[in-house]
Amino acid sequence: MTPFFRTTAGWLLAGLTLAAPLAATAQKKPAARKPATNAESAIRQADIKRDLFALADDHFRGREGGTLDELKASAWLADRIRETGMLPAGDDGTYFQFFQLQRTRLTKSSTLSMGTHQLRVNHDAAIVTPVNAAVNAPLVYVGTATPEELAKVDIKGKAVALQISGAPTDGVSYRRYLFGKLRTQAADLLKAGAVAIVFVSDAKAEAVYDHWGHIFERGNYGLPGDANLRVLSQAPTVWLPASALSWVQQAGQQFVADLKVETFAYPSVNIVAKMPGTDAQLKSEYVLFSTHQDHDGTRAPVAGDSIYNGADDNATGCAALLAIMRAFKQQPARRSALFVYHGAEERGLIGSRYYSAHPTVPEKSIVAVLNAEMMGRNAADSAALLGSTPPHRNSSDLVNTALAANQQGPKFKLDTEWDKATHPEGWYFRSDHLPYARLGVPAIMYTSLLHVDYHTPRDEASRIDYTKLTKMTQWMYLTGWAVANRTAPPAREPGFKLER
Asked: Where is the signal peptide (predicted)?
């Protein structure tokens, strides 16, 4: 609130009043500082729509992390950022911060058969974790693997087939429950002597298999040294569609697998830009506006479309940040604004994990992170602010600033359920604010939440509510503008600790 020139003026006035009559001192008070005028008018729906349609076009083939398509989209974004007038803030005077994305996957020469069925690995059958394995063993079917069913079969040295069953009882989503079950039930059967596990979907699991089965083809991703990238030689876990149940149950079949793992290093990239602040002291501090530019690339066709364009996830965030840049260029704030497009978010928050560990500005200079994640769908009058509810709230100060900006601007009805620790989707843990929050940096996420087109080829630019997206962008900007102009940075929550 009190920049240096106001403090100096105050000392001068105080000195003058020593020689002035008491009655005159009341007339010598310095004029109140007028709040800086924001540039919200620079955020235009037409600009946002134009940028989003371009980025979510088939030209970029879904912008999959670690591919030339992601790099091509990143170069396009850097050109748009330069046009806004933002300065480079990446490495070596550029807009880019490259990092190595490590990947492990099964080789295309890996083979799998059960009886007379030759199965294409990660097409006809999903291998849950890439492993080196050579198995030739009898296949036995044990129903749903209840204790009674297992007691009737000797599973030692066998490949054990079972049908998925059950449902969550602790409030988690069915998808999270299912993926956990694939791990834990397989581990129990392997401990009992099985040499391979074959899960067959029931009707409920089939819906997840249809939607998410393609992810296993990609294998595992991470930064070099991540635990999930260790290549293991162990018993494989296979997941089959429900249609396989009729033949998996047949007796006298042999399970034969020859699985080999290969590993690659790919380049991925963060795009980093800044607008320097106007205050001589506060310009060394940053309000970080965050998003990610990647999506799922090209996958198996759905209704004839194989390109997952990711219009809402997350071209909305990309277009929003470009609009916010134009506003900060038109009217800079006292603090500097830092803009980071994180690469490879869909591969496990890889870009934000890397940038938060290797920031191009001092970590302590980042006073707040405002993250844009899927902001253009669902009810026109509703949205969510993640990081606003304990235990995810690490700065009540920042949250209150965001809530005030919502009242000043779009006046969204705010959904608080998705931010609760008990919400089955665990949505708070699935976007780029998380690595910063783990470091204690005040961090929040702006989102309009999931929808039926999430991670499908139907997430297209034509389905975005552009009026809503513009309002979401304005809300995010108004919050960042307020933080960038106040004298004190947002206070951090004492005792902040995430539940996992």
From this structure: 1-26
Q: Over 81-144, what HEC string results? A: HHHHCCEECCHHHCCEEEEEEEEEEECCCCEEEECCEEECECCCEEECCCEEEEEEEEEEECCC
The pLDDT mean for the chain works out to: 92
Whether 20 is in a domain gets the answer no
At 475 the pLDDT is 98
- Cα separation, 320 vs 448, whole angstroms: 13
Residues 159, 216, single domain; the answer is yes
In whole angstroms, give the CA distance from residue 87 to residue 322: 13
pLDDT value of residue 153: 94
- Same domain? 328 vs 355: yes
Q: Could you tell me which residues are beta bridge partners of residue 427?
A: none
Count Cα neighbours of 338 within 13 Å in the Cβ-side half-sphere: 26
Position 335 in a domain: yes
Among 142, 255, 238, 250, CA closest to 198:
238
* 486, pLDDT greater than 60: yes
Strand partners, 371: 290, 445
- Looking at the structure of the chain, the number of domains it has is 2
User: What is the model's pLDDT at position 35?
Assistant: 60
Residue 15: inside a domain, yes or no?
no
Confidence (pTM): 0.88
DSSP 25-82: HGGGPPPPPPPPPP-GGG--HHHHHHHHHHHTSGGGTT-BTTSHHHHHHHHHHHHHHH
Q: Are 229 and 218 in contact (CB under 8 A)?
A: no
**DSSP E strand stretches across 325-399:** 336-342, 366-372, 382-386
The two three-digit tokens of residue 376, written as one number: 């253009």
Domain that holds residue 181: 108-259
Domain end point (choices 217, 243, 259): 259
Residue 165 has pLDDT above 60, yes or no: yes
Q: Are 325 and 48 in contact (CB under 8 A)?
A: no
In a domain, residue 23? The reply is: no
What pLDDT score does 6 carry?
30
Of the candidates 406, 404, 403, the one whose C-alpha atom is nearest the C-alpha of residue 389 is 403
Residue range 81-91, pLDDT digits in tens:
999 999 999 99
Which three-class secondary structure state does DSSP give residue 314?
helix
Residues 6+ apart with CB under 8 A from 82: 95
In this prediction, residues 106-123 reach a mean pLDDT of 96
Please report, to the nearest 10 degrees, the dihedral formed by the alpha carbons of residues 431, 432, 437, 439 taken in order: 140
